[in-house]
Design a protein that fits this description.
The protein has 113 residues and is mainly alpha-helical. The chain has helices spanning 3-24, 29-34, 36-54, 58-63, 69-81, 88-112.
């Protein structure tokens, strides 16, 4: 994998994480249960963040230790393979608590790249 590929994947992570946060604005945790399209959209966006993370080269993952690679990739696997048991409370917390600092880190990495 080339550095170019890593740069593209990092941008994908950033774009989809941002989109998830924007989509959740003005919403609350009960919105996930009430709005099926919101639940599906947010789940898919988080899956894509994890899929892009899984495609980042090991060298780039080592270069950016501030990114919780194992957790992000693990979450993607859990969402995809445990599609019938997604805990919406956890999904909401990830979007509200975990994605904003991830976005900040990715913005810095992409800007420096």
């Amino acid at each position: 994998m080339t550095q170019h590929d890593d740069a593209v994947r990092l941008r994908h992570m950033l774009e989809h994480a941002r989109e998830a946060v924007v989509l959740s604005e003005g919403k609350s945790r009960p919105s996930l249960s009430a709005e099926r399209t919101l639940e599906l959209s947010l789940t898919r966006l988080v899956e894509i963040v994890g899929e892009a993370a899984a495609r980042i080269s090991p060298a780039a993952q080592e270069r950016y230790p501030e990114i919780p690679w194992v957790e992000i990739i693990g979450l993607r696997n859990r969402l995809v393979h445990g599609y019938d048991a997604v805990d919406l409370d956890i999904l909401w917390d990830i979007i509200e608590i975990d994605l904003p600092p991830l976005i900040a880190s990715l913005e810095k990495i992409v800007a420096d790249g």
